[in-house]
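To whoever is on call:

I kicked off a structure prediction for a single chain this morning and the downstream step that reads the tokens threw a length-mismatch warning. I double-checked the sequence; it's 422 residues and nothing unusual in it as far as I can see. Pasting both halves so you can look.
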Amino acid sequence: MNTPRVPASPAFRFVLTMGVVNLFADMTYEGGGGINGAFLGSLGASAAAVAIIAGAGEFLGYAMRALAGYFADRSGRYWPLTFVGYVINLVAVPAMALATGWPAAAMLVFAERTGRALRKPPVEAMLSYTTSRYGKGWVYAVNSALDETGATLGPILVAAVLFLGGGFRGAYATLLVSSVLALASLTLAQRRFPHPSRLDEEPNLERSGKDSSQQEGSAALESGAFTLSYWLFMCAASCFAAGLLSYELISFHLTRTHLTTVVGAPLLLALATGGGVLANLILGRSYDRFGLPVVLVAVVLSALCAPLVFLGGLAPLVLAMPLLGIGYAVQDTLLKAIVAGVMPPGRRSLAFGLFYTGYGCGWLAGSVVMGLLYERSLWELVSFALLVQLASVPLFVLAGRRMPRPPGSDAAAAARAPLSSR
């Protein structure tokens, strides 16, 4: 895989510009995410309610992506849908300052996730037009690293407001600044790159020596059909999501057990997302080179987060945060790179939207179960989270064995070769 050597090219400038948009967007909603659980608890919500709100919000945030992706592909109106999603996503967070009860706050959490659902598929589809030149793992890694940079700065900003006595409402209100910056950056991106599909510079790399399995995989992708590997990857991702901890539940746990102060909760999230910056870049680049084994290692490391969070004291909790960052990198970089390698070219937005609908179903089921288990037994909660994430490993392996290898897809080839050669 060739490394990116032309950072001044339009394709790479588009990746960086959208990364800046997401930096400010992640400052906003991850800043809020660092205190959502504690804020809901202060308004009278129980642990089960917090976990279910987080899970239902994530479910909405993923389930609506299939509809948004379908609409984007059919209409070709990527930018209008992107703008609508960002506006809803970014306005809902500072509006939390006005919530007077936990049901109202929960509705704003749902609105924020819905906005994210509307804008994610068209954005991922637009970014996919740059992957033929820079590599699927690297493109999503750069974009996600900028995301996570914002996700690190947002909780730090919130912690500073809390430390200075601004309270939860003052912290939410402060995030209006990053919301405005995100929308301004998005407007600039649309004006500079009105037609992202023209950034696709993939050359015709067909070779007469392709084997029959490569031809079959290419035919399936070109026909617009979703391959078996796509559905298997979705099942694997759903298992992974079911065991991935929501930070709402973690922050609720921190305040209930007094492991940290209210200021400490967003700082720990910043530690997780800061680790995610490095994890995205390292894992994304490694995926382009080594393929699916990178995903398997990352899933195992992510699974170790739950026991450290719930069964130890402050020191294990701090150690768990970089592992949570690795989990975010799997979600935000590796899974997107996988989808980009198995999606039908004419159904890019739908492929991302449908995939993350399945992911959201897994997240909802896991969040509900973990919320109920939290009140019953932390050992049972940890066992559940650990087992369901590890259950995704054999599914990823099976999907990798059946992964088609369209011409020019280095990541697909890398993902398939290490597994099929055994």
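Update from on-call: the warning came from a stale cache, not from the record. Cleared it. Sanity check on the structure: The chain has one domain: 10-193+213-420.
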